[in-house]
Amino acid sequence: MPFFPRTHLLAAALALTPGWAFAQHEHDDGHLAPEKFGQVHFPTSCNAQVQPVFERGLTLLHSFAYARAAKVFEEVSAKDPGCGMAQWGIAMSYFHTIWGPPTEDEFAAGRTAAQRAAAVGAPSDRERDYIAAIGAYYQGDEHPARVVAYEKAMTGVAERNPADHEAAIFQALAILGVAYNSPPDKTYARQKEAAKILNHLLTVEPEHPGIAHYMIHSFDYPELAELALPAARAYARIAPSAPHALHMPSHIFTRLGMWKESIESNIASARTAQAWIARTHAGATAFDALHAMDYLEYAYLQTGQDEKAREIADGVAKVTSFDVPQFAAGYALAAIPARHALERRAWKEAAALTAQPATFPWAKYPYAEAIVHFARAVGGARAGALDTARREVARLADIQAALKGQKGFDWSTQVEIQRRAAAGWLARAENKDAEALALMRSAAALEDSTDKHPVTPGSILPAREQLADLLSELGQPAAALAEYEASLRSAPARLNSYDGAAQAAERAGKKQEAKAFRERLVGLCGGSVPDRLRLAKTAAQ
Question: d(Cα 163, Cα 350) in Å, to the nearest integer?
């Protein structure tokens, strides 16, 4: 019998018994299930006895299981101190190519490992190439410049070792790292370059975790997502023991509005993440689990499963300790309650949110805390608590100004989108309708010009959907319908967009379009509409 006979109890179980329950389940049949992380082939000059362990560390690295990978490479180094590539692996474990810059402690540990790798050395030119490449990252001051230096170095490794598939795969990941740390390019030239490298190797190494993983990241954009669907379906099969491998397919499922698949993916990911930390962080919640739960919350809300969404939000509210209090955890901790309130139009609830738990290092991640201020601002404006809305809009402006000019992913722009949208609702509450429309249009245009960070399934509220909501309130149903349709192209199968589009089409006299959107809405919610929509309709009558 599965440990969770009702999947919607996942959040509460994670919060209340995050370690013991999973560890117990693993031992139900008297032994641990064999781990499966995929297959890699990476010959080294290290002792033959440590080669399988080294390659296991590499499979973990390709699924971004960085902490576990580092421990495995440390084990290799302990058994074979002359293996410079073991120190290379440790250094790579602190270089989170796509996530963002390492912390000061992570950078220091990675640089030490890179220096040790160079000092130990290696007998082959190929291995020395790898060691020099990671060494290039740990030089200089700014993360984006270091990412570029690493990409150039890995391109050289791949060119000098054309038969080395790992070199090509790491080159593709390095290209994606540069793309993620550069201004948005709507041609996705770098992403397509990486995908071309990976696609060439797909049939050669079908069980390689990195190929499927990085294909998903290459195509994690509305215009390209369908191209990654085969990789999304393959990755969880290739590495079912890795929480990130179980979660990553939901990036593409979310982009395509495949909510059932996203829910299944993230339930499996959260369970596995908790099982991983059961022995090392008793009573804690895994950041990988929180990350998966953000995607779960989003999917449950889009399908009208509000009770399951509430259990996720309530479970997250009970979380007090973490395996690693890093940025993905902070983002989820802020996003989940904000989504839960705003998607349900619970404006007073949104206006009362606070960043929890207070013990989390929020100061390190102001862009995550900004989500709470955005929710409070919108909630305050929509609930008539205008003093709250004004304070929170001002706070967003302060956070945006502090983030402006920072290197790497452009969080400043993301916060500015939130500020403009919240200021738009405030202007609407103050009966400044022209100003409200101008602000909301600028928020939507700015959001169109950028891309989301891979940490999130999507905007807390899409700016163009908010623009459509505003136009609808202002008695412009035809214009609202056009904006809902535009929003659905980049954020597909959203419940509130379907509902808003149906109402706007009805008011605009487009009966057939209204009927089509209502049918999509009912299909999205499994044959009925959620209580929140019925209650809202009753209140409006």
Answer: 55
**What's the DSSP call for residue 449?**
T
> Residue 272 in contact with residue 246, Cβ under 8 Å?
yes
Asked whether this chain's domains 39-221 and 462-541 adopt the same fold, the reply is yes
Max CA separation in the chain (angstroms) = 79
**pLDDT value of position 535:** 60
Query: Which residues are paired to 285 by β-bridges?
Result: 322
Q: Is the pLDDT of residue 529 over 90?
A: no
Residue burial 319-349, b: 16+ Cβ < 10 Å; e: rest: beebbbbbbbbbbbbbbbbbbbbbbbbbbeb
Q: What stretches of 455-530 show up as alpha helix (H) in DSSP?
A: 463-473, 477-490, 495-507, 511-524
Is it true that domain 39-221 has CATH number 1.10.287?
no
Tokens of 341: 């309130």
Q: pLDDT digits over 411-447, tens only? A: 999 999 999 999 999 999 999 999 999 999 999 999 9
Domain residues of the chain, as ranges?
Answer: 39-221, 325-461, 462-541
The answer to whether 328 touches 291, Cβ cutoff 8 Å, is: yes
Between helix 495-507 and helix 463-473 the angle, nearest 10°, is 30
Q: How far is CA 375 from CA 453, 466, 496, in A?
A: 19, 13, 17
**pTM confidence score:** 0.91
In this structure, are residues 205 and 211 in contact, taking their beta carbons and an 8 Å threshold?
yes
Whether the per-residue pLDDT at 244 is higher than 80: the answer is yes
Q: Which CATH architecture has domain 462-541?
A: Alpha Horseshoe (1.25)
Q: Is the dihedral of CA 360, 361, 362, 367 positive or negative?
A: negative
Rounded CA-CA distance 212/155 in Å is: 20
Tokens, residue 7:
């999947």
Cβ contact 245:235 at 8 Å = yes
Q: Are 99 and 328 in contact (CB under 8 A)?
A: yes
Q: Under 8 Å CB-to-CB from 94, ≥6 apart: which residues?
A: 66, 70, 102, 106, 107, 109, 110, 113
Q: What are φ and ψ of residue 285, in 5° steps?
A: -110, 135
Distant-in-sequence, close-in-space partners of 79: CB < 8 Å, separation ≥ 6: 47, 49, 50, 53
For 143-152, the pLDDT digits (tens) are 999 999 999 9
**Helix/strand/coil percentages in the chain, nearest 5:** 70, 0, 30
pLDDT reading at 180 higher than 60? yes
Res 455 pLDDT > 60: yes
Q: What is the pLDDT of residue 408?
A: 80
Taking only the tens place, the pLDDT of each residue in 336-375 is: 999 999 999 999 999 999 999 999 999 999 999 999 999 9
Structure confidence by residue, pLDDT tens digits, 103-133: 899 999 999 999 999 999 999 999 999 999 9
400 in Cβ contact with 412 (< 8 Å): yes
Asked: is 325-461 a CATH 3.40.50 domain? The reply is: no
Q: What is the pLDDT of residue 209?
A: 98
Tokens of 137: 């990252």
127 class by beta-carbon count within 10 Å (0-12 exposed, 13-18 middle, 19+ buried): buried
Mean pLDDT rounded to a whole number for the chain: 92
